[in-house]
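User: I need a structural model of Camphor resistance CrcB family protein from Linum tenue for a docking pre-check later this week. Nothing fancy, just the predicted structure tokens so I can convert them on my end. Input:
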Amino acid sequence: MAEAGKDSSLIEGSGRNGSFGRTTSSVEGSSLRRRSSSLSRTLSFQPEYGGVESDNVSEAGDIGDRALHSSSRFSEDGGSVRRLSLEIALEGGVAFPIPEDDAKSPVYPLPEEGGAVLAPRSTEPMIGSKEEKEDSWRLPPLFEYVSCLLYLAVFGILGVLTRYLLQKLFGPGIARVTSDSSPLYLDLPSNMVGSFLMGWWGVVFKPRISSVSDHLAIGLTTGYLGSLTTFSGWNQKMLDLVVDGEWVYAVSGFLIGLFLAAYSIKLGVGTAKCFQLATQRLNCGHCNWTVNTWRRHLAVMIVLVLMLGLLWTLSGTLLSKEFSSTEAQLWIACIVAAPGVWIRWFLARLNGRGLGQSGILKWVPFGTLIANISAACIMAGLATVKKAVDTKNCNTIATGVQFGFLGCLSTVSTFMAEYHAMEESSKFWRAYLYGLVTILAAFALGILIYAVPVWSRGYS
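Assistant: Understood. Predicted structure tokens for Camphor resistance CrcB family protein:
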């Protein structure tokens, strides 16, 4: 009772003066801090990859435009931490932690058994704090959408160019590691590199990137890495092997591709955590510059508009000059890449929603699933058209659309981020089921759309 009286007088003193008195003994202060810090853990959820929150693994890769209006914030370890409102915290009798220095906000200790919660005398310091005013500042919705679309378009085209360079580097022309006639398909290096970088930018360092700019985080993960990797291209190469009668190569290609991509993101997460630990010990790697004002947002948007205009103009000019060459496919891909990224980003809003009003199967990322399977089906359809028409112009245009639009509509990096989150959760079997359903559905539909017509009509 005596200790409770001391704590009560301490709270009342802080309500009158706005800070704790210096005359309080260090023993009493440390005791109250220990009690408050232990209770403050209830304000945040554990990383949402295990236990009750395992349904949220479908949001590990991308949630589309819902990220612009999400109330979630990222913790330093990559897990999502939700901010609870003051009203909810007070109703639950939750204690806020007491900082070591002079506190400017009231503290609410948990009541003893049979006791009552002590209400604060004033909440003005908490409600009117500078941090909340800064956090409440938001861009207009239209401005945010336009900014995100610009980020996605520019980084999407850069992802297409990087994928093309990796194909040439590891393909038959230079390194001779990948080819169209082996399980090591041409897009395997880009899928591995994209999955590895997703472990860095999309898992470990995404909170730090988001602290600089949420739109930059979307551009890097959804735009660049999503376009650097491609699920539809992977599926189509396996269908080509099946048409040629190489069933063993096709099955091996799926197994090798899934294993290497899954291991790449694990390696990316592990190395990123090591690098993060090293920078923390060296007390470096922190960026204080953020895009949080109108002028900075406007400056970045102007730069992105200029870059996008330059990329499209350059692609169109080179396409008109080199339409008869094989390079024309790349320039067509750069022109049509942006719509593929945009559609995938809008579909990603379905991730974590589930089916129906009750939201069943929330753990299934339906947005990514629809994007990958639909892109694989359209790519198989265009491959059938190329076989049927069999002209140079048709092959050039169709291949450019396949490489650009459909390559950006589908993704392996986001697919692997979701797969990795499921595998790390308490229900790890969901990862294998999700991967199996995605691959089998795309492959089976591809056989019906592409392989069956080729076999039945005898296309060469």
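Before docking, keep this in mind: The first strand starts at residue 72 and ends at 74.
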